[in-house]
Prior knowledge:
alpha/beta, Rossmann fold, 41% helix, 2 domains, 6-stranded parallel sheet, 5-stranded parallel sheet, 12 helices
Amino acid sequence: MKKKKDALRILFVCKNRSAYGISFGLINSCLFICNALRNVGIECKVVQVEDNNCIDHEVYTYKPSHVFIEALWVVPVKFEILCSKYKKAEWFVRVHSKIPFLAHEGMAIDWFKGYAEIAKKHKNFHQASNNEDVIDSLHRAFNIPVGHWPNIYYPPDYGFGTKHYQTHPKHIDIGCFGAIRPMKNQLYQALAAIAFGDEINKCVHFHINANRIEQKGDPILKNIEHAFEGTKHLLVRHRWMNHAEFIVLVRQMELGMQVSFSESFDIVAADFVWNGIPMVGSPDIDWLSFLYQANPNSIDSIITKLNLAYYGRAVNLQHLNKLNLDLYNQHSLRIWLENLDVI
């Protein structure tokens, strides 16, 4: 028997990262899913907590049917207590990163195995991921069952209207946003952007977020800064900002770059595509049109895709990315509704 939507109360629990403010990829991901689920009549809530002990209070107050702990930050043993105390709730640890990224988290595999032991004891505990490659990897290596709960890109309507390109005769604004860290491949993208600017005889204004550095990313930022020294091109640094402010910034760009080594979805890429701005990514952003997927280890490939994105604007070629994102969202929403047993 299918469940009624009004019987569902979905709670997403994120760890508070006050150092960067409220806006970061993880919580935006949850807020967008909530928007999509509310749009079809399902009640949802997103909360940030300081530590493991604060989860109990949020669950006791909200009385959810489903609790999604977002990313790996709750020790496995904590779920022994929570699953026993709140037996009517379905508990999930939902992972947002692929294995190459998780390799930087020293406890990841140990916790996956620990969660699997919890799942054997408590039928209301589950592991989840937004990416099928993670699901396949953990199943084939350790026979760990992991459910597929993908991203849904459904941001608020900020009322900005249609994006109109602000092209400049002498320079081009390229946005390569996100935390500075090794798997994001920002240095190689900076070199490709410089070479691309030389080819089209325009000064590149290369925009980055320079105040969020993770996983020993300091040398990456230094190398990016040195890359622009003595060239006609300009490195433009931006602070971390909330999503509405970020969209204002995104809409000032002519091209976007997210040619990363590892992505499970990439909200920044979706931000550009949602606003009709050409985005060059890597094959790891599998919902992007293959025309815009560059080899992250080949400067020739990246430059080729930048040229296609730049000149393809004349025929609105970037619409292919928007079409793919729309199809991805429709498919993802259906997966959520099927998993929640309402269709």
